[in-house]
Amino acid sequence: MECRIGCAACCIAPSISSAMPKMPYGKPAGVPCAHLTAEFKCELFGKEERPAVCAGFKAEPDFCGNNRAEAIHILTQLE
Predict the structure, then answer these.
(1) What domain of life does the native source organism fall in (predicted)?
(2) Is 3 domain-assigned?
(3) Separation of CA 36 from chain center
(4) I need a labelling partner for 41 at 20 to 30 A (CA). Which of 57, 64, 67, 79 fits?
């Protein structure tokens, strides 16, 4: 499965405990990542500073559902 353009549920719903630029204490659940652009893209994509948990996340129907709202709901429930 390919990531949906403009979704970014994985950059909003889950918490991230890893420190990263702009977020030295990680990211709380439900808070958009500081590296999420207005176009819902990751400004750390492909960079060494990107947390391993982010780089390791792969879009799958079980996590992403059928649309962005479902993805946020699923990932929030998993949190």
Answers:
(1) Bacteria
(2) no
(3) 9
(4) 79
- CA dist list (Å): 70 to 12, 21, 25, 28: 13, 29, 28, 20
Q: Which three-class secondary structure state does DSSP give residue 76?
A: helix
| 67 within some domain | yes
N- to C-terminal Cα separation, the chain: 21
Q: Taking Cα atoms as reference points, which of 11, 20, 67 lies closest to residue 41?
A: 11
Q: What is the 3-state secondary structure (H, E, C) of 19-71?
A: CECCECCCECCCCCCCCECCCCCECCCCCCCCCHHHHHCCCCHHHHCCCHHHH
pLDDT of 55 reads 92
What domain range is 36 assigned to?
A: 9-77
Query: Does residue 62 sit within a domain?
Result: yes
pLDDT of residue 56: 93
